[in-house]
Design a protein that fits this description.
There is one protein chain. The protein is an alpha+beta fold. A hairpin with a 4-residue loop joins β3 (about 45-50) and β4. α5 (about 110-115) packs parallel to α8 (about 165-190), α16 (about 375-380) crosses α22 and α22 (about 460-475) crosses α24. The chain binds a DNA duplex (12 and 16 nucleotides) through α11, α12, α13, β10 and α19.
Length: about 600
DNA sequence: ATCTGTGGCGCG
DNA sequence: AAAGCGCGCCACAGAT
């Protein structure tokens, strides 16, 4: 239908069209919808094609069969389907064709590919941004007028669309195709083909996860907030007494000090003789002053009320009754995903919060997390013999490290305080922590922390050698890489004024944190695929960096659990090849470890 | 009345 | 009172 702007209204017509482009190495796909909410808005158009021929499909007329036709066309030819910001279209398609197995669609995503290509070197871009219009301009010299989109929101059906809207819809497919065609050699040159494939494959898992949402017990959650309200009021009374000498009171007996204002708090504490230039918790606690201690308690209640208060519950969707967070698959420069509106990756770890996420009747919640992922990755990368042996034979790494550094037997019961120090070093060193930081972390003098670090690296020279080598090499090359080949360039850090120390710490940490992200994304893609293939009642509902949360039907929970564990381990083993990857699983009625 | 940057803090 | 990394959300403060 090149040139023309006819609408295809049946799945058969789409099949015929796809036969005319069967020589194309890949297909581009896009949708136009009446809005952004897959649980409320509708699919209007589905556009598919190449750089030279695009079909516009009246989605409502053609019906969900059109998705099956597309799946068949890609599978027969072994072709990928390219989308820009696939997660959005896939969510819309999931509502449109609930019976279709979208995990079978071999997706590549031009937006995620671009983010992988520019990770850490965005600053040099003139037309910055990852929107399709920006990419079309950069790669194909095509101008796209995104304001046309408003026409779709107002349209009751495709017949209400004008020539302008249809032409725009076709150009989006043309642009997506051309952008990807231009990205393919760039991805190959940078060694990012594998990463782009993982991101594309995981985009359905992210889409399905957002679409499913998290089940939350609003009543139970509300009672936590109610309790925090009461405790905050009590804490305020205590604070008013502590500060009574230096503040005023209103007619109702309330102190006029705003305990949420750092400035006012610092001033008031100063008048009590406590001189501070920060109100961070450690600082307040270190003073030992009862007013400062009381502030710490007040802040805990205030944190619950503000960040995890009733506004959190406003994210419950009116139609599904669940919380549909928004995930950015590449949300961090390390390659980690991030979550927002609401952030489901920083729910307080205590069971009183987590147990509010309850499985509906007949379902269970599976929580599966990589055990000690970052230290295993460090062991893999450094080939440290003690780390490797400990993970291979199974043993308490923190205790073994402590025994070596302190030259005395340590276990969870024997000298546990030394084990705790070793644990702090183990985690801190991978991020480039210095003696000062370690001293603060474990509460010793800086000189003592220096000796500890020295003892640590004497005992594990391979760790120091690896970290120094990888940082040095990264700074020389201008980028660092994960085990799967994900790259992070330092250009943006440099232009933002980060000193060499900061860049060294990123160079040490990003490969570790980012490899963990590579692993779990590959696992997510494979899990979504396997669960669909086995027709099991199981779906991803959350991911928290090294943990996956799955909702499963009671009858399938054992098979789902086995698949989740198997795929997480095998995905980890794709990159961590010489160290066993372990996954801890917990099954229950609520989200818990 | 909004916008932006900062400090603080929840998570891994 | 941050020279341990990565996020997002909140309230405040100073700006427009």
């Amino acid at each position: 239908m090149a040139g023309g702007l006819d609408l295809l209204r049946t799945a058969d017509a789409v099949r015929s069209f796809l036969e005319t482009v069967s020589d194309a190495p890949f297909l581009a796909l896009d949708t136009e919808t009446t809005g952004l909410d897959p649980h409320a808005d509708r699919l209007l158009l589905l556009q598919i094609g190449t750089a030279t021929a695009q079909a516009l499909v009246d989605a409502q007329a053609a019906g969900p069969d059109v998705v099956r036709v597309i799946l068949e066309a890609t599978e027969a030819k072994g072709r990928v389907v390219v989308l820009h910001h696939a997660k959005f279209d896939l969510k819309m398609l999931a509502s449109f064709a609930p019976e279709a197995d979208l995990s079978r669609l071999p997706v590549m995503d031009t937006m995620l590919s671009e983010q992988a290509l520019l990770n850490g070197r965005k600053a040099h871009l003139l037309g910055a941004g990852f929107g399709l219009a920006a990419l079309a301009e950069r790669y194909a010299g095509m101008g796209l007028d995104k304001t046309v989109r408003e026409g779709f929101v107002a349209a009751p059906n495709v017949d209400a669309l004008g020539e302008v809207e249809l032409r725009y819809a076709a150009r989006d497919v043309e642009a997506t195709y051309k952008v990807f065609a231009a990205q393919v050699p760039l991805l190959a040159d940078e060694g990012l083909t594998r990463i782009a494939a993982i991101e594309g494959a995981a985009s359905w898992a992210f889409a399905a996860m957002e679409h499913a949402g998290m089940p939350v017990d609003a009543v139970a959650w509300g009672s936590i907030v109610d309790q925090a309200d009461r405790e905050k009021a009590l804490a305020r009374k205590v604070l008013d007494v502590e500060f009574k000498e230096v503040i005023g009171f209103d007619l109702f007996g309330y102190g006029n000090l705003n305990y949420d204002s750092d400035q006012e708090v610092i001033d008031a504490l100063g008048r009590l003789g406590v001189k501070l230039d920060s109100t961070r918790r450690e600082v307040l606690e270190s003073t030992g002053h009862p007013a400062a201690i009381a502030l710490v308690g007040y802040r805990e209640h205030q944190k619950i009320i503000s960040t995890y208060g009733r506004r959190f519950l406003e994210h419950i969707h009116p139609r599904t009754g669940r919380i549909h967070s928004s995930f950015k698959p590449i949300g961090a420069i390390t390659g980690r995903a991030s979550s927002s509106e609401p952030n489901l990756q920083n729910i307080p770890a205590s069971s009183r919060f987590r147990s509010c996420f309850k499985a509906p009747p007949g379902k269970k919640i599976i929580a599966a997390d990589y055990s000690g992922a970052e230290l295993r990755i460090l062991a893999e990368m450094s080939s440290d013999p003690v780390f490797m042996r400990t993970f291979i034979e199974g043993g308490d790494l923190h205790a073994i490290v402590a025994s070596r550094i302190f030259d005395t037997p340590v276990s969870k019961t024997e000298r546990p305080e030394l084990r705790a120090r070793a644990k702090a070093i183990n985690f801190g060193l991978a991020y480039g922590m210095g003696a000062g930081g370690l001293a603060a972390q474990i509460g010793v003098a800086t000189a003592e922390a220096e000796q500890l670090l020295e003892a640590y690296f004497r005992a594990f020279p391979a760790i120091r050698g690896y970290l120094d080598r990888t940082a040095h090499e990264a700074l020389r090359k201008g980028f660092c890489t994960t085990l799967a080949g994900r790259k992070h360039w330092f250009a943006d850090l440099v232009s933002s004024g980060a000193d060499e120390g900061a860049r060294v710490r990123v160079a040490k940490n990003m490969p570790i944190q980012g490899t963990n992200a590579d692993m779990i994304k590959l696992a997510m893609a494979r899990i979504a695929r396997a669960l669909a293939e086995e027709k099991l009642d199981g779906r991803l509902i959350n991911m928290i960096h090294d943990e996956l949360v799955i909702e499963a039907g009671e009858g399938d929970v054992e098979r789902v659990t086995a698949i989740v564990k198997r795929e997480m381990i095998s995905a980890g083993a794709a990159f961590v090849r010489r160290i066993p990857v372990e996954v801890d699983v917990h099954v229950g009625d609520v989200w818990q470890h």
